[in-house]
Amino acid sequence: MLIVVVLILWLIKAYKKEKKNPKLIDQYRKQGLEEQDIEIFRKTMGEAKDQIQTWEKFVKKDGDLQIIEKVTGGLSSAKKLFKLIVQTPNAVLKNDDFLYKKLPNMVELVEHYDDLKSLDKLDAELMTQTTQLIRSLSEKIAKTYENQLSDDIEKIKNEVENGE
Predict the structure, then answer these.
(1) Which residue in 28, 74, 91, 111 has the fewest CB atoms around it within 10 Å?
(2) This protein's superkingdom (predicted)?
(3) pLDDT tens for residues 93-136?
């Protein structure tokens, strides 16, 4: 009996993990993505989602990181940029730096920051440098989102003005 329950729970978890949104898949096909491209895109976005959730977990548990977030809005911008990319896969090309450099680097920084805080003998200079790096990278991520919005608005403006 226990084995059956465990098997059912495992199947439910596996189903939810592999759950695909048919509307998004159709949207990706309409935008010209092949099946292989869709799989790569979904894998990339799954990794980005995990990274954003990791970053958010560290922000929620640390007051200093919360202050940085309130000042820079980097995490909030990362979430919005993620949603934009999910809806418009072509945005990956403009935001590859965000997905492949900035976001992984941020996760690495907040993990190191957390490790530093747990040390008995805290190196104040190293902690200050790490905090400054986190703030700087958070500002860059927020600016990336701002630039994406600006590009989108400019595109719409041109379409309206040119009657496209």
Answers:
(1) 111
(2) Bacteria
(3) 899 999 999 999 999 999 999 999 888 777 888 999 999 999 99
